[in-house]
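Subject: Sanity check before I submit

Could someone independently write out the structure tokens for this chain? I want to compare against mine line by line before I put it in a report. The sequence has 225 residues.
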Amino acid sequence: MSKILLLDDDKDLTEVIGAWLGSENHILEIVHDGREGLDRLRVSDFDLVLLDWNLPGLSGLEILRYIRDEGINTPVIMLSVNRTIDEKITGLDIGADDYLPKPFNMKELAARIRSALRRSSQKPTNVLKIRDISLDPVKHKVFKNEKPIFLQPREFALLEFFMRNPDEVFSGETLLQRVWHSESEATIEAIRTCVKRIRDKLDEEKSDSIIETIARVGYRLNSVE
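---
Independent answer below. Compare away.
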């Protein structure tokens, strides 16, 4: 059973696809507007996306470009009528996993979905897990006890660095070089502020912080509770 998002403004077609995929025990969410579909992809996890090229609000190609730029690697099968070879190549180059021209047979669609899901399941996971925190650098998501935690980009980058180097102590200067290296005006105070914000979001009351301050030295992520 897989969770699939179908983005297509052809309501008759989506009903047919929905009935077919439901018979194969997939969970299907259907959206008919491009902007709504992009919002859904940003807040929910799907195993696969069926994405029509022509959508109101945002085109399928724009949605594909947005989600790939944001690091969302969910498999995408593009659906459309009469695209040129150059357009198909553009979609594949941006990050589509497959392309299926309309009209299509439901058996072929189901076969393509199975193939894309198999390829996706074979990809190694890059999720970092320490204690009750998991961080997905590809999807740019953080969870604590399986509950999503929203981090600003710099907070995310700093937490990712700590999680890739658990139990190592880093001075403020080192963190500036490794995480803030492109910002010449960043200061040690920026490190302190960022660490405080991460602690506020991840730490529980009456418990030691996962990011420890080592007096007169720097900071480290404590991997042991």
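---
OP: Matches mine. For the report I'm noting this point. The mean pLDDT is 87.
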